[in-house]
């Protein structure tokens, strides 16, 4: 038998994910005195405001886990610790979700306005528990926009 007769008779593939880990980027500023006597100090990038801080990717992951996947803050913090060996408190995750909410508010307002102006929209409500008490998840949607809101009351105040 010659090598010219060889052919692939079967294939097998293994899909896997890389082991998760984080990396640290250190930023330094320089302090320099010119020969003329003037002192120059370089600046940190505008997004680097603290001596030690979490970057945008871990913050986005935390918001996704708590707001997109609806994990409780404690479980989301534990998952980040398990996967990345980063100890982030549930309170920090809550603060990041609040910051994301503020940043997204203009988009939420535009969605609400588009739904108000829509000639036809679907509206629904479902009961759910918030801190052990009955609340209502209100939904308004068209083919292109969806708005959700959780309220303690089922209807509008009269």
How would you portray this structure in words?
This protein is of the alpha+beta class and 158 residues long. Among the domains are: 52-117, no CATH class; 119-158. It has 3 helices and 5 strands; from the N terminus they run ββαααβββ. The strands form 2 sheets. Strands 3-4-5 form a 3-stranded antiparallel sheet. Strands 1-2 form a two-stranded antiparallel ribbon. Helix 1 crosses helix 2 (73-84), helix 1 (56-68) packs across helix 3 and helix 2 packs across helix 3 (90-117). The longest helix has 28 residues, at 90-117. The chain is extended and about 70 Å long.
Structure in a nutshell:
The protein has 158 residues and is of the alpha+beta class.
Question: Strand arrangement, largest sheet?
Answer: 3-4-5
Distance between the termini: 90 Å
Indicate the overall shape: extended
Helix content: 25-40%
Structural class: alpha+beta
Average predicted confidence as pLDDT = 93
Proportion of strand residues: 15-25%
- The ordered string of helix (H) and strand (E) elements is EEHHHEEE
Rg calculated over all Cα atoms: 26 Å
The biggest beta sheet is recorded as:
3 strands, antiparallel
Count, helices = 3
Given as residue ranges, the uncertain stretches (5+ residues, pLDDT < 50) are none
The tally of beta strands, per DSSP, is 5
Q: How are the elements arranged and paired?
A:
Blueprint: E1 31-33, E2 39-41, H1 56-68, H2 73-84, H3 90-117, E3 122-130, E4 133-141, E5 146-151
Antiparallel strand pairs: 1-2, 3-4, 4-5
Helix pairs in contact: 1-2, 1-3, 2-3
């Amino acid at each position: 038998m010659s090598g010219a007769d060889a052919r692939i008779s079967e294939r097998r593939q293994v899909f896997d994910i890389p082991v998760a880990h984080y990396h640290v980027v250190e930023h330094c500023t320089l302090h320099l005195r010119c020969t003329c006597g003037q002192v120059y100090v370089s600046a940190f990038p505008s997004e680097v405001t603290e001596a030690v801080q979490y970057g945008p990717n871990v913050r986005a992951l935390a918001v996704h886990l708590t707001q997109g996947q609806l994990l409780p803050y404690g479980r989301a913090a534990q998952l980040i610790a398990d996967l990345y060996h980063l100890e982030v408190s549930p309170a920090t995750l809550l603060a990041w979700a609040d910051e994301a909410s503020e940043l997204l508010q203009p988009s939420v307002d535009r969605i609400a306005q588009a739904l108000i102006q829509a000639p036809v929209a679907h509206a629904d409500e479902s009961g759910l528990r918030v801190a052990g008490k009955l609340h209502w998840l209100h939904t308004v949607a068209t083919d292109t926009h969806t708005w959700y809101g959780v309220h303690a009351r089922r209807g509008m105040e009269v």
